[in-house]
Amino acid sequence: MANSTALIVTHAGAPFRLESINRTPLQAREVLVRLKATGVCHTDNAVRTGKLPGAFPLVLGHEGAGVVEEVGSAVKSVKIGDHVLLSYAFCRTCGTCKQGKPYACVEMERRNFSCSRPDGSCPLQWEGLDVHGCFFGQSSFANPAIVQESSCVPVDPSLPLEILAPLGCGIQTGSGTVFNIIKPVENDTRSLVVFGLGGVGCAAIMAASYLAKQNPGVLDVIIAVDLKAERLELARQLGATHSINGQEHQSDLIEEIRRITGGVGADAAVDCTGALSIINDMIVALAPCGRAVTVGAPPLTSKMSIEVFPFINGCKSYRGSHQGDSVARKFLPFLADLYQKGEFPIDQMERSYPVGAVNEAVQDMLDGKVIKPVLIW
Ligand SMILES: [Zn+2]
Ligand SMILES: [Zn+2]
């Protein structure tokens, strides 16, 4: 047994507590990572509060970045001293993993959200109790963290880990949805609407803005939708060409999107809110052949109904995505490179906090005072 410092949640709804906890020995395909920073995501808080399922006591955290300190006996893809960004875990052996789509691994649920190792065991202990972990394959609210090898993405050691830590979940999801799924094409994808401007939505705006600059005739209209004026202002700074305050357009959101897009509707849309009424509006507000993507998670078991006929006549499509269809090993270094070139200014939406201030960081995120808190170890 060795010690880690961890933000532990003793039961659903309890605040994070900074404690010294014990960690069990590394398994063959695990890596011990000395963290520099961990981003805070809404999903951490949703599990903490019991809105999404968890198992307690629990260590959350799923946007870690640090340096490899030890490797399990079967680890091949990282070595001691490597700088790594952490992302989701996957099995490598299922059909979708073999097709090069680890973001849709058939074991996604078990390996990322079961709050246990793949073999069902708990990686941590505290005051004689088993502590659940392995959240998103990493539970990077513990330092050092026991991380699944598949979650590790080696990056250039010169990169600033304190800024890039959040790439592995929310930012990858938002930007990946634009780069990997919407893949805007000239004269075909002229407009995009992004609903909800947390870290995911802002990352989608940044990716869209980058592509619009690189490719004339693509995404000349980028519409940001949110309920908060400050967030809309930030979205403008990040490249949105139009903004809609959902408070002011509760009853005519669809009409407003149509007005901005010359009456036709949006060629592409991303929902990052998970609100069913917004998802419905998103689909209705699509242009003919428009494509809508859901990344925001509604409450579990949510169901939705849409009017089918306009969907058929308009040749619209609607799909979900986990992590923006991103293969983290390739995509995170690409995003890090864009950041270094000044083309992907994620630091504009981040604020750093000492690890002990995690509860304040979460509250600031919920209050909309900060979009992406980053805990510094
Ligand atoms: Zn798999
Ligand atoms: Zn997340």
TrEMBL record:
| InterPro entries assigned | ADH-like_C, ADH-like_N, ADH_Zn_CS, ER, GroES-like_sf, NAD(P)-bd_dom_sf
Q: A Pfam family for this UniProt protein?
A: ADH_N
Q: Which residues form a coiled coil?
A: none
Tell me which residues make up the Enoyl reductase (ER) domain.
Answer: 13-375
Cite a single GO MF annotation.
zinc ion binding
Is DNA repair given among the entry's keywords? no
Q: Indicate yes or no for the key word Zinc.
A: yes
Cofactor(s) listed: Zn(2+)
- UniProt KW keywords: Metal-binding, Oxidoreductase, Zinc
- Record Gene3D superfamilies: Medium-chain alcohol dehydrogenases, catalytic domain, NAD(P)-binding Rossmann-like Domain
Its family remark reads: Belongs to the zinc-containing alcohol dehydrogenase family.
Q: What is this protein called?
A: Enoyl reductase (ER) domain-containing protein
